[in-house]
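Help needed: design a sequence for this.
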């Protein structure tokens, strides 16, 4: 049963899972609020912003360490620098 967005009341909503281990517990959010909610708790690739996984920039922006490492690994791999990759420990 679809419900309006719990944040702004928009009728067009989608199911947001607060906890993926409880698939029946959903929060209804419109696309905009849904994205905003995910930015709060997860990076764009769905990694959780936990204390260990979050790098806070001096300007307050948060960065996902998994994605940072992944981006670095890809850019290094593209340039074929395998030695550096093992040193970074990804
Ligand atoms: Zn909304
Ligand atoms: Zn969601
Ligand atoms: Zn991430």
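Sure. Designed sequence:
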């Amino acid at each position: 049963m679809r419900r309006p967005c719990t944040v702004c009341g928009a009728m067009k909503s989608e199911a947001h899972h607060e906890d993926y281990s409880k698939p029946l517990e959903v929060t209804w959010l419109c696309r905009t609020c849904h994205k905003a909610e995910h930015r709060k708790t997860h990076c764009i690739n769905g990694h959780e912003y936990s204390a260990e996984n979050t790098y806070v920039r001096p300007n307050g922006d948060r960065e996902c360490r998994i994605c940072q490492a992944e981006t670095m690994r890809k850019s290094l791999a593209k340039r074929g620098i395998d030695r550096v990759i093992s040193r970074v420990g990804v």
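The mean pLDDT is 87.
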